[in-house]
Amino acid sequence: TMKAPVCAIIGYDLDFYHHLPKLFPHADAKSWFAGNEAKIAETAFRNGTLQGAYLMMAARALGLDCGPMSGFDNQGVDREFFAGTNVKSNFLCNLAYGDPKGLFPRSPRFSFDEMARIV
User: Fold this and answer.
1) H-type helices in the chain, by residue range?
2) What residues are paired with 88 via a beta bridge?
């Protein structure tokens, strides 16, 4: 992380639902979340994770290498970068054009049949 030219903090905003009247004006979607802290946290975390994955897909489409990671000091990152907000860090993602000499070969992957089932 210290050598990466970019380290993106992928976070999620626990106040996201306040923006729903503008972003989803088709229904009173804000009321689906107001007062339901568990639903707010679950939805914010899930959607923040999905948005982080979209960022990585876009970066990889541009030829960048991505190094997503967890296992860091979330509270420290939140204190340093998101103090005074309701944004929480989810994961970090180093972004760079990697030197092929320093990159591991692609690790093995499960086949579709090993991981999925069509019902």
Assistant:
1) 20-23, 30-33, 37-61, 74-81, 112-115
2) 12
